[in-house]
Predict the structure.
Amino acid sequence: MLTRRLFLSSSIFLILFILQESLFNQVRLPLGGFSLFLIFTMCWASLSTPEVGAITGFGAGLLLDLAPSNDGPIGQWTLVLIVIGYGIAFLRYGDDSLRGSPFSLVVLVAVGVVVTLGVYLATGVLLGLDIGTGFQFTKIVIGNGIWTLVVAPFLLPLISYLHRSIFETRETL
Amino acid sequence: MRNGGDNRSRLLLVILIVTSLFLITLDLRGVAVMQGARNGAQTILSPFQRGASFVFTPVGNFFSDIAHLGRTRSQLKSLEDENAKLRERILTRKSIDVEVGQLKTVLNLAGKASYKVVNARVISQGSSASFTQTIIIDAGANMKITRDMTVISGDGLVGVVKDVYPNTSLVMLASDPSFRVGVRIADTAQIGILSGQGTSHAVLQLLDSQSSVKVGDVLLARGSQGDKPFVPGVPVGQVTYVADSAGAVSATAEVRYFAHLSSLRVVAVVVKAPAEDPRDALVPPKPFPTPTPTVTIYVTPSASPSPSTKK
């Protein structure tokens, strides 16, 4: 059972990763656009238990680290996404008011994306990487948050369906 | 269920974080395996990226255009403006080129006959509605132009000054129906009267019934008394058709003007005729046939025999 879940979810992430790297990265949207992969990861983690959330973050972060378009050290995304994945799953399980409310889920995902990028930049600074001007990354972080708010409501039904069919839980929106 | 506080889950979290820190450390230490992993990922991804880029580039450009609509539009606007400006400059340049060309030829002509001329630009073509054929030039009394002065272009006679204003003059073209000029057939002493017809052709009437005219004869202005209205020697036109009527009192012929009266840009007003008649000096040269180039190819036998000749 565990193998099946692991295999299916990692295939989904792998396909999405390839799509993100080859297709979605070519769309140039205002405000820096959004990362579908990141939104998907956030939604997935928020629908899962904290353990699965952390493992999801680990897998997704590993893939992002391997992405050729990424120039940070391998493991940076992994570290960030483990923490955020765990945290977002923990938050959603820990607070009953967030559960079952699609709107709060969307907000949670958007905040998750913004925090992820912020933490990524922060770790980048700690690791002594060149992260560009403050204006540039503020724009990208805020833009990603706004785009996530716009895009996530359309993705959530699909993600929720996929998640449910794999984990066979009674999670619904 | 509150899973957050579970020991197992905390252990898992710690293991994962330690793993990621381990990865970061390895990569920052420059272990080759890590870079190899990324290279491998790129190798796997590149065909997908190439395919997607092939399919998606137009769509991506479309999105990018939408995103930068304002910028694209303003860029388009400025390019259009620039384009229009450059096109206008080309047009101006072309018309200046034409003017320079006409000016050059008219100065050549005037110089050959040692006429003293005043150059002028044609600023208006007279209206065709009034049946008279006139032009207005931008030189008038200020340039010492007076009535009945001969106006020439690089090709030949254009007309005669009809009215003089302070800064402009009205010129009656040689094609005007009321225009008359005494002409002489070049190389001969035959004289006649050329009358404008309102077209690019005029009618020549020879005064002497005994004289003969043939197609291709060049006509020159005969010159008037006191050089007004016509200075002598100005090329007028060429005979294109001879009306061969035996019973007529005098021979008539059709003449085409040398000057292109409908496309005049720069003309010259002859303000002073030369001291002596230039006679036939201004007859335009016969068109010189362009030599056809011939190509001669020398074939040198090559030192090494070709395989086909080898037996």
